[in-house]
Design a protein that fits this description.
Blueprint (H helix, E strand, L loop, with lengths): L37 H15 L10 H9 L4 E6 L7 H4 L8 H21 L7 H4 L10 E5 L3 H8 L4 E6 L29 E4 L3 E4 L7 H4 L9 E6 L25 E5 L20 H10 L16 E6 L9 H15 L4 E6 L8 H12 L3 E5 L22 E7 L16 E8 L8 E3 L8 E3 L1 H19 L5 H10 L18 H5 L1
Parallel strand pairs: 6-8, 6-9, 7-8, 9-10, 10-11, 11-12
Antiparallel strand pairs: 1-2, 1-3, 4-5, 13-14
Helix pairs in contact: 8-11, 9-10, 11-12
Length: about 500
């Protein structure tokens, strides 16, 4: 993710009030139990991350911690369910029909149980199912989002074989943080760009300096990504950037015959009846990633995308790059499901994530993986004080391809704000070795003057673009075949580095 745009854990979580998060919901007075403070919960999270070198999983927390996180958040829990006798759902997520009676029966029984026990715990409140069901979750997934106020209900649910997981969706760590940042938001055109940081090609576009370190221009002699659709799961795209508009300049110059589809699944309002905000980027990060993947090879001196003839399906799935709120997790999972169900989409690019595992988002990724999608995810970006944390979620999943950014030159060195670790599969150069401010170029929110962007976000979007170039050479190939082409075209292959995976990708070799 870009510079300053991803936190590692408690004392460096990124936040931006203008990228609106959902507010804490009104919960009834709790029992005599006293919830842990956010400082105490954050300490548990940090200790787990240090000890396991992995993202934090709520399944490893005790019930009191689980309940406390809900009380310190919005009280909304993701509840995954299954009929008795089901197993290995991860491998069959895309085959499940949750509308079948045996699935709906379990769902309704769990909802009834929670409503009944909540009313017992808090007499006089007279809760109904509609009061506790937080929002509509993707209908393809065997899960629901529901408010739970009692630790006794959580304990009972955990003991039920019909419950796959129950975890707080809306717990955020920033309340105890002194450090604030923009969570990837706040994009402006670069004030000045050294001529060494780009080359101008026809008709009149800038090729960022780091593209040539991956032989992307050479790959364009064989492929421009035509016919391949990439789904970008991010903060949407700017309505003011004409180069990302179907009726604007998306098809201009040497980019033609392609489509851009702009969708929105993120709901910023905490009102239960609110609709998704729409596709327009209020943050800037998604616009930058869209530019890296698919900005047209047009005119005006703007920067060009890696796969400038691919189709783009851009989702506003989240308010910023840290997927740490209930509405964000719901928006991301809904966007992934929609992309998975779109037959033309072959590649998903996700320059977003968190240090918390989200089982709801994981379910959506299992679903998309079963549908044959190739998914790239950012290894993580944070301050250089916190990037010792390994690969974040969902890049930490086996079903995704984790990417991080490095500085130019050798020996290989991760960028100042990039995460690395054994889960990393590929690396992309996106930062000058002697000047951390000179990162890659991409589209700004409007106009032709490029903006700067770095971190593992940049690396992820560029890798998705390279995969589109490779897949366009043989659209009949499978995800595994394309992934193997990327591996064999990488600098460390057939060896694998413990921090940098298969190494730097040679786009020309991958296309060949």
């Amino acid at each position: 993710m870009s510079v300053r745009n991803f936190t590692a854990f408690a004392f460096a979580v990124l936040f931006l009030a203008s990228c609106s998060k959902e507010q804490v919901l009104d919960a009834p007075a709790a029992s005599a139990d006293v919830p842990l403070t956010k400082k105490e919960i954050n300490a548990i999270v940090e200790e787990s991350i240090r000890r396991t070198d992995d993202v934090f999983r709520w399944e490893n927390a005790d019930v009191h911690t689980l309940w406390s996180a809900g009380m310190r958040g919005d009280s909304v829990y993701a509840l995954g369910y299954q009929p008795l006798g089901e197993e290995k759902l991860n491998e069959r997520m895309h085959l499940i029909n949750v509308q079948e009676e045996r699935w709906t029966s379990v769902r309704e029984q769990l909802i009834s149980l929670i409503v009944e026990e909540t009313n017992k715990a808090f007499p006089g409140r007279n809760y109904r199912a509609d009061d506790l069901l937080a929002f509509k979750t993707p209908e393809e997934l065997p899960m629901l989002g529901i408010k739970i106020f009692s630790s006794h209900i959580l304990a009972a649910l955990r003991d039920m074989p019909q419950v796959r997981y129950v975890e707080p969706m809306g717990y955020e760590m920033e309340d105890e943080i002194g450090f604030r940042s923009d969570a990837g938001c706040g994009v402006s055109p670069a004030s000045s760009i050294p001529t060494a940081d780009f080359v101008t090609i026809s008709p009149s576009v800038k090729v960022p300096w780091n593209f040539n370190l991956h032989n992307i221009q050479q790959a364009w002699t064989l492929s421009t990504g035509a016919g391949i659709s990439v789904a970008l799961i991010d903060t949407g795209t700017s309505q003011n950037q004409t180069k990302l508009q179907q009726n604007g300049e998306f098809n201009s110059g040497q980019s033609s015959g392609r489509t851009i589809t702009r969708l929105g699944y993120y709901v910023s309002s905490w009102w239960p009846w609110a609709s998704p905000d729409g596709p327009n980027d209020q943050c800037g990060h998604g616009t930058q990633m869209a530019g890296l993947i698919a900005a047209p090879r047009g005119s005006g001196g703007a920067s060009v995308g890696v796969a400038y003839n691919c189709n783009l399906r851009a989702y506003r799935a989240t308010g910023d790059v840290v997927v740490n709120g209930s509405a964000e997790k719901n928006g991301v999972s809904a966007s992934i499901i929609n992309a998975a169900n779109t037959s033309s989409v072959k590649i998903l690019s996700m320059s977003i994530g968190d240090v918390f595992w989200s089982s709801q988002v994981a379910d959506a990724i299992y679903y998309a993986y079963g549908m044959g999608k190739l998914m790239f995810a950012a290894a993580g970006t944070s301050t250089n004080f916190t990037n010792w944390v390994g690969v974040i979620f969902p890049a930490s999943m086996a079903e995704t391809v984790a990417v991080t950014g490095v500085k130019e030159g050798y020996p290989l060195e991760r960028c100042d704000v990039c995460h690395s670790g054994s889960a990393v599969d590929f690396i992309i150069v996106m930062q000058r070795r002697t000047d951390s401010s000179r990162t890659s170029l991409t589209l700004a929110m409007s106009g032709n003057t490029p903006s700067r962007v770095g971190g593992s976000s940049t690396a992820t979007a560029m890798t998705a673009g390279i995969a589109a170039l490779a897949w366009a050479r043989n659209p009949a190939q499978t995800r595994t075949q394309v992934l193997n082409r990327l591996k064999s075209a990488s600098s460390i292959y057939p060896s694998r580095n413990s921090q940098f995976g298969w190494g730097l990708i040679n786009a020309q070799a991958a296309v060949n």
